[in-house]
Amino acid sequence: METRETTDWRSTDPSMRKRSTSIFHAVVDVNQIHKQGTALFIAATLLQRELIETTMPIQAAIILTILYASGAKSNDSVSSWTDDDYIKTMMYLGLDLFLEGIVFFFTVIILKQIYPRFSAIKIVAGLFRKHKVEFALLTFGSWSTVLLMQSTYSGMDMSLEFSWLDCYDHPNRTWVGGFDWDC
């Protein structure tokens, strides 16, 4: 009789019956959850790439403006620039920023059409909140490497002209700026 009461209690308790169906639905939804997780990963990667491509012209404009305004002769890129060269460069960077902004905008719109449950702003904000230190370190490291390669003091002449070797034996050799020497 004790067995029968236990069996009757289990079969009439609604929480026990509900538990089995919720587990069933959870198992059935595992594939759907896995697909949504994969889609979210792809969307996050796509948005991150587009965000980086959009912010790079801004970073380049800031760094080149600082180098040009300070008159840095040790940087090969800006050492021989005129005002027209600077304006032309800023126009190209502005055009690049505009085009990348359009691509980013359409990426967000298309992503919203494909996955209406995803919010591009929340995805980007979550990525930045979680990985802001990594983003900052990678940005700093990348720009440091690029600027090191452009610096006269590092000795790396990316044009492979090595113009200072032509002036090695000249007693009146003068450094003009960047990798340019006057013999």
Low-confidence runs of at least 5 consecutive residues: 15-24
Structural class: mainly alpha
Please give the number of β-strands.
Answer: 2
Major pleated sheet: 2 strands, antiparallel
The ordered H/E elements are HHHHHHEE
Task: Count structural domains.
Answer: 1
Shape: elongated
| Distance between the first and last residues' Cα | 111 Å
Strand order of the largest sheet: 1-2
> Can you count the helices?
6
State the helicity in percent bands. over 70%
Multimeric state: single chain
What is the residue-mean pLDDT, rounded to a whole number?
78
Q: Give the percentage of residues in beta strands.
A: under 5%
* Rg result: 30 Å
Polypeptide structure, described:
By secondary structure, the protein is mainly α. The protein has one domain (19-158). The protein has helices spanning 2-12, 14-28, 30-70, 83-114, 120-150, 163-166, and strands spanning 174-177, 180-182. Strands 1-2 form a two-stranded antiparallel sheet. A hairpin with a 2-residue loop joins strand 1 and strand 2 (180-182). Helix 3 runs antiparallel to helix 4 (83-114) and helix 3 runs parallel beside helix 5. The protein is elongated, with a radius of gyration of 30 Å. The termini are far apart. Residues 15-24 have low confidence and may be disordered.
Features:
183 residues; mainly alpha; 73% helix
Topology:
Elements: H1 2-12, H2 14-28, H3 30-70, H4 83-114, H5 120-150, H6 163-166, E1 174-177, E2 180-182
Antiparallel strand pairs: 1-2
Helix pairs in contact: 3-4, 3-5
Quick description:
This protein has helices at 2-12, 14-28, 30-70, 83-114, 120-150, 163-166; strands at residues 174-177, 180-182. By secondary structure, the protein is mainly alpha-helical.
